[in-house]
User: Which sequence fits this backbone?
């Protein structure tokens, strides 16, 4: 499965790699992005307001790096953590619209795709020797 490396507005110009081959910073950035997307989809389409994946990722980052997801974003992606999360959610909202909203996302198995991406990225991050800026 090929994925863009960033959620920026020039996403179509971003290089793509199979998600299983992402390493280091690209792996962790994509993991944060997929985590935000999954929790946004749960909130928007499934009525689940808990950010369960962000909480799980926070536990990993605290245990492994001693920083929260917000601090990781601030130090390694964008100093405006709220703005970054909103831009990821906005880009994902546009994708959701293209799929036909929540019913289209359900028909296209987007939830399962995001779960699988999250699982692969999370497992790779657990064993990654890369250490973020802290």
Assistant:
């Amino acid at each position: 499965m090929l994925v863009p490396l960033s959620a920026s507005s020039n996403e179509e110009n971003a290089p793509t790699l199979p998600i299983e081959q992402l390493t280091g910073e690209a792996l962790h950035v994509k993991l944060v992005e997929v985590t935000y997307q999954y929790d946004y989809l749960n909130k928007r389409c499934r009525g689940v307001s808990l950010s369960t994946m962000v909480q799980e990722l926070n536990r990993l980052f605290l245990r492994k790096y001693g920083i929260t997801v917000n601090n990781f974003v601030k130090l390694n992606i964008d100093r405006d953590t709220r703005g970054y999360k909103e831009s990821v959610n906005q880009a994902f909202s546009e994708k959701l619209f293209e799929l036909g909203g929540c019913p289209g996302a359900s028909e296209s198995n987007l939830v399962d795709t995001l779960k699988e991406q999250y699982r692969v990225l999370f497992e790779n991050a657990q064993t990654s020797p890369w250490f973020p800026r802290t």
